[in-house]
Amino acid sequence: MRGSDILVAALEREGVDTIFAYPGGASQYLHQSLTHSKVIRTILPRHEQGGVFMAAGYARASGKVGVCMATSGPGATNLVTGIADAFMDSIPLVAITGQVPQAMIGKGAFQETDFFGLTLPIVKHSYLVLDVNDLPRIVKEAFHIASTGRPGPVLIDIPKDVQMAETQPRWGEEISLRGYNPYKKADDVALHEILGLIEKSEKPVLYVGGGIISSGAAAELKEFAELTNIFVCTTLMGIGCFPENHDLSLKWLGMHGSAYANFAVSQADLLLAFGVRFDDRVTGKVSEFAKRGTIVHIDIDFSEFNKNKDVHLPIESDIKYALGRLNEIIKSQRRSAKAFAPWRKQVEEWRTAHPFKYIDYPDAIAPQKVIQKLCELSKGECIVTTGVGQHQMWAGQFYTYSKPRTFLTSAGLGAMGFGYPTALGAQVAKPSVKVVDIDGDGSFLMNVQELATARVENIPAKVIILNNQHLGMVVQWEDRFFQSNRGHTYLGIPGEREKIYPDYVQICKGFDIPAERVLRNEDLIPALERLLNSEGPYVLDVAVPYTEHVLPMIPAGKTVDDIILE
What's the number of CA atoms in the CB half-sphere (13 Å) around residue 44? Predict the structure, then answer.
């Protein structure tokens, strides 16, 4: 078999059913082999960044490894943002790139880059394939590494001569990676210590993140919270891992999280940090974060312990195992949950006093209202993707998520242009679920070319553009900290502010995708209904005021005492 055929056969053996791939000179043999596969659907994005975000969307929605492919040089470098995004958010991804022939490596050949070297800081592992006989083993290892332990992206860079070389492949070799043991299990002694801390606690809080979703531990988390009667707040990456319509849910915390979640964590005497990394958007001023409480940190990645925040009890473990075992111990010992009555009363007072809220303008459409109405009309059953900015925060605040893998966002890297291609990948992974990208006009434009992918591949993902003609989140910071001095944040045409630019309805018409613009409140709900009822892709361009701010807000590097509520 030729190397390119071996690669495709190896992908099939790993259960790959979809690859998002853009061809070029150094990957052409790989694409020729893909045309003969009866198992793998090859989706052609219109930009490599779109392709890697689609693969990430597929992975985030399904839990399976997402796969993308590009040619050497600029094709490969266009994958960098998506690989970095997957690395930051611990998303299982295998990125395959073509490379110039080995004899040309290091000689400045046409479309050559040292992609192995370029991506070293943003991958979990990487391979430069130098022998065609290594391909079966490398592919098997890559999928194993990407999907086990703390998930992440793995790169396979394949020179053109390796793709063309012929050999008799050897399949089925057992994986043995020296020093790599992804199966971590908490010791019962440590778990009993957690239960002892809960017994002594009067104001406990669960602070949970993307690790719950990665490990498939949502059911175990719900059972644990109910067995112990402890309030739950999530990170942005953890949204959906605990049902937000549950009375123990405090939604999510951090810079733009709920005030009541931030207040609760600030006052907690015990913080159970499960599958989280204490990132700066959650902690603010690290030394002041949760300083009144004992902190227990369970994570599968030992390197996260005491990296950002010193903790009292670090436990290296798969969180699904740890929570499952905690539940077993609680039930076997017939421990009854504490009432935490004064604490519950206090938290309920905060929740009542500081809900997420907005002004429903009579003469303008509030962006928060768009998301709230979408949630009502869809009964909270959509998979929601986002770009990055104000709309991203409002999508987290005003939609109610009850299941994991239903809020897909670029949390760590904060990559604009993420929302729409991610929605396409998620829709391919979950064809029976409605997928809606809640986007900003700035973010959406960054990968607008993927409208062609949606049309040609008949992927029915929807888009709602909250169009304020500005880079809204940067404008908010300008308003708060720079006396509203505009530093190149206006996206329209200077001197023609009455004109909405660009005209997304006309752009969509060119791509042969139905679209409409909404300017008035009375038109909003009928337009949302048309979007949700459409059988194919659909774009709704909603004009919203640029003067809106995302609140609450804890300024960067500040504490909950500095929270802005109005």
Answer: 9
- At residue 176, the pLDDT reads 87
pLDDT at 382: 98
Nearest to 57, CA basis, from 79, 82, 75: 82
The predicted-structure confidence for 392-431, as pLDDT tens digits, reads as follows 999 999 999 999 999 999 999 999 999 999 999 999 999 9
Pair 97, 158: CB distance under 8 Å: yes
- 304 confidence band (pLDDT: 50, 70, 90): very high
**pTM summary value:** 0.97
48 is catalytic: yes
**Residue reference for tokens 């925060």:** 393
DSSP secondary structure of 57-101: HHHHHHSSPEEEEE-STHHHHTTHHHHHHHHHHT--EEEEEEE--
Amino acid 44 reads: L
Q: Which of 535, 511, 251 lies closest to 393, judged by CA?
A: 251
Candidates 64, 124, 140, 160; catalytic one: 160
Tokens standing for 348? Answer: 């309920």
3-state helix, strand, coil in the chain (%, to 5): 40, 15, 40
- Report the C-alpha gap between 156 and 146 in whole angstroms: 12
Could you state, in order of their start, the residue ranges of all structural domains in the chain?
A: 3-164, 188-353, 367-543
For residue 41, pLDDT beyond 80: yes
Question: Of 111, 267, 346, 449, which one is the catalytic site residue?
Answer: 111
Cα–Cα distance for residue pair 189/15, rounded to 1 Å:
39
Query: Would you tell me the crossing angle of helices 367-378 and 390-398 to the nearest 10 degrees?
Result: 40
What top-level class would CATH report for the domain 367-543?
A: alpha beta
Q: Which fold has domain 188-353?
A: Rossmann fold (3.40.50)
Give pLDDT, residue 47: 98
d(CA 214, CA 298) in angstroms, rounded, equals 14
Write out pLDDT tens, residues 430-442: 999 999 999 999 9
pLDDT given at position 174? 84
Q: Is 160 a residue of the active site?
A: yes
Over residues 195-205, the mean pLDDT reads 97
Q: Is 111 designated active site?
A: yes
Where do runs of H (alpha helix) occur along 315-366?
319-332, 341-353
- Of 20, 48, 143, 316, the catalytic one is 48
* Annotated catalytic residue, options 54, 255, 393, 473: 473
Class of domain 3-164: alpha beta
Are 188-353 and 367-543 in the same CATH fold?
A: yes
